[in-house]
Amino acid sequence: MTKASTENPTPPPPDVQESEAVSTRGAAALAEMPERISELGRETVGNIRSDNPFMVAEDVNVYYGDNHAIQHVSLEIGKKEVIALIGPSGCGKSTFLRCLNRMNDTIETARVTGNITLDGKDIYRKEQDPVALRARVGMVFQKPNPFPKSIYDNVAYGPRIHGLAGDRAELDNIVHTSLERAGLLKEVKDRMDEPGTSLSGGQQQRLCIARTIAVDPEVILMDEPCSALDPIATARIEDLMDELCEDYAIVIVTHSMQQAARVSKRVAYFHLGLLVEVDKTDTIFTNPQHKLTEDYITGRIG
Amino acid sequence: MQSATLILLLGFMATAAFFIGRGRSLALVGGPGHGLALHSLPGYYGYYVAIWVVLPALALLSAWVLLEPKLIVALVVNGLPEAYRNLPAGELNLLVNNIQNLAAGDVISVAADDMLQDAATLFNAYAAKSRQILAVLALGVAGLGGVHAWRLINPDLRARNRVEGVIRWFLIAASSIAIFTTIGIVLSVLFEAIRFFQKVPVTEFLFGLNWSPQTAIRADQVGSSGSFGAVPLFTGTMLITAIAMVVAVPVGLMTAIYLAEYSSARVRGVAKPLLEILAGIPTVVYGFFAALTVAPWVRQAGESAGIDVASESALAAGLVMGIMIIPLVSSLSDDAINAVPTAMRDGALGLGSTRSETMTKVILPAALPGIVGGILLAVSRAIGETMIVVMAAGLAANLTANPFEAVTTVTVQIVTLLVGDQEFDSAKTLAAFALGLMLFVVTLFLNVIGLSVVRKYREQYD
Amino acid sequence: MSAVKSTREKVEAGLPRRRRKERTFKLVGLLATTVGIVFLGVFFSTLIAEGSSAFKQTFLQLDIELSEDVLAPDGELDLAYADFDGLVRTALRAQLPEVSGRSDRRALYRIVSVGAAYQVRDLIAANPELLGTTQSMWVPAASNVDMLIKGNIDANLDETLRPVSDKQIGWVRALEEAGRLETRFNKALFSNGDSREPELAGIKGAVMGSLYMLLVTLVLAFPIGVAAAIYLEEFAPKNRWSDLIEVNINNLAAVPSIVFGLLGLAVFINWASLPRSAPVVGGLVLTLLTLPVIIIASRAAIKAVPPSIREAALGLGASQTQVVFHHVLPLAMPGMLTGAIIGMSRALGESAPLLMIGMVAFIVDVPARLTDPATALPVQIYLWADSPERAFAERTSAAIIVLLGFLLVMNLTAVILRKRMERKW
Predict the structure, then answer these.
(1) Do B361 and A157 touch (CB under 8 A)?
(2) Interchain CB distance below 8 Å, C249 and B271
(3) In chain C, which residues fall in CATH 1.10.3720.10?
(4) φ and ψ of A167, to 5 deg
């Protein structure tokens, strides 16, 4: 992919996430601004480096069939760091997120090139089992998706399949700790046998987070975890993220700039499959380098 | 006049009526330029007159055709010598049959004496007369209807609403046929079954262990009553159904899983239509294959394994029936699996499940109600399947659970009892309807539950 | 960090076992998928291997002297009583003069089909002026000879175990060497009705019976089915009556077909006294059987028409009926036709209900009217499959090939229609 081709923008990637399917208005607005897109340099401005890099993506490209969804993205994610991926619908942020635990493998037409390492090891190397990778890089989805099982079984699911608990007591322990860390234990401790779907939306999302941390991952990917929740539930999840980042690296995709400002240390701005700008959160919001970033955070692109 | 000619003639009249009606409506308001003065488009006035021409005439025609045979028979019987008129109902029926066959020019079972010959002539005469009267009446009614409608036409006539009303009634009638079919099924099997149960006690039928419906030809012969214990039929049906399900459920389910989760789009694009072909093969063809190809294989395989296999074993019929049902199970399972939101699958994969763990621990439990509903429908299909078992399972009413033996099923017995010559009053014939009742009730039960489970399940994720 | 490490170790430890399970699961799925497809392959290959030979038939060439002395001894030719058989036999004897003795001659006569005499009769009937001439004719061989030539009877078997004797085989070989024996296209299979003689049996009667039934079914089921679908989708109020209809239709689609046969027997034949074995009754039963299929497919087709089109027409002041007949129906028609074809192909393959209404009789004549006794193609298959003669097994397979051919054409039409219908709104 050369620079010239960026002047010939590819259409947005296929709808990986529902939100991007719903709102195509942003993409349409973008199509009307060719001169702006031509300003887009291949080089990401700001600083893609992290002080204490844990996951490193280098020159990542994703293709869905003929569609070049992500172009030459390089980014470092630090240990115990919260990094927010922002950008208009269809900009590739969710696609990038799904590269980090190889969830793109489940899409038949998807093809990923470039390098992504976790703790120095290429996660796309041949011997890497995606199953083991996903145990280390957990994921929380946009819509709360508890399994149609009891609350207990939802949280115990990961430890069970990975064989993390030797006996029932150990499993109980993992489930309780995970629920507690997700701030849900108090609400559900007397109803562990009820189906996970009987909880409210916000509780369900926290259940999904508990389910993810029960596997004791090193990185948690969150794909717009609050977009389906009301403001109060959102606030609780954000608090939870503050606590979780003491132990985990968190990569969060969000549509809400306020949320990005509240929870993250660094922000990466994606636009039409390109990583336009990465920097400390304050820098991005107070002093963006790139015109597109500025337009986005001031609400001119949405 | 032939009915076909009559109907054709009515068609012509209706077409003419359409144009006359349309012309009349326009003429009333002063020509084609003034159509706006009419309540409806001129064409609707045409349809209105045409409907008046056709509907009453058709109603008369169908009533006539339904009543005519009985009326003519009554008239002919009336014309018979007194000795014949007072015959018992059964013999009279036979006589009338002979007369009718003779009248139609067919060969009859007894010598055609003068009396029969006369009656046949009379029969034909009445039939011809009846057709003449019908033709005159029908055309007359059609004409009168047309004139009536023609006189009703005026610019304020709400022709469109009237025509649409007729259409609406036609639509309602068409959709009610489903209900009448069900009622018809229930009544036809129920009445005959009740007559059967007057001859044979329900308890003997439901719990008797011996099935040999062959009644002797003469009433004074030993064992003339036959025995109607249907339990061997039920067990035979269940045995074959069970074998079919043992084949169809795992294979169908795993096929659906493989095609949904593992196969590439290209493989899926080839495999799915191929399986649809399997579903489209007529059952008689499966029966032929079961009887002539699979049964000998099973027999040989059994022999080489030292097992004695009957030439019409339950196993051969069940295996082939299982193959036939695979596409049904796999497509219903596929529906159920696809109805589980992708978020579930992503959630499980995101936690590091393998695909098989995702499938067996998350998706299948979630899809279980849909799959179970589908299996119930498949069981109902297997129980009601006829041709495969008629051709491959045999007639021996053995009470056994051994798949290598020959068994018979409910459907096989229905066919055996009703194919060929039959008197409609014998317990043997009526037994077929009692079996039909059982079959209908059981499959209805399975269908209602299966369909409602499947529907509820679909709604759950909608 | 030690806790993290131990988690990773536990995960890694379990991986080989889980990968094995995954592979097994996938393999089982692959095997299951192959089961159906392998069956299909075996099925079609045995069918074609068995049935393709039935499209050929063995014929013998005989020089038949249409002698006036035999056919019209009193100077008067009576087609019904003339001894055509004798002519054929004489010709056969002339061909193989070495055969002598009563029993041998009788065995010799059995290598030619009884159809040969009919063929001679038909020739004379059409051309009376040929009387007195000698005609060289190809006449059908008996089915056993046909089977022998096709290799379905093993000549190496002990004589008592096969239906043709050593002598007969010798005669057949002699005829073959004289160039008087040939296998040709089996026209009888397509132009004859059923027969007790395999070499004369054909499927024309059954095909015509099926055709008549499908005609009745199409004429009744398609308009009624479409009307019912229109009512349920466009007019029916959501109440108990329409719920009842809905449940009924779905159930009827799953009621065993033989039950429809019982309905036909009780209602159409016993109550309405319609003739037994008649295509019109078969058509009525199949109408009831296919209605649910057509209704369900038509409803789906109507549902696929976007509401915006209805709203647009209603907004212009069209009545509900006009909207349906001017806009919805034309757009839904391809889908409805597809449904009708699928329903028809189901009706064509159906045999169980036809057994109930007496369409299993042995009928030689090709039906000419809807009320003539007839059989249907699948029922013919059932009847032939039951016949013990080896030659009928071959014809059964051939009839199945023809039936599947019809079904294939119908389904391809449906697929093409569906493809053309797939329009994006």
Answers:
(1) yes
(2) no
(3) 204-421
(4) -145, 180
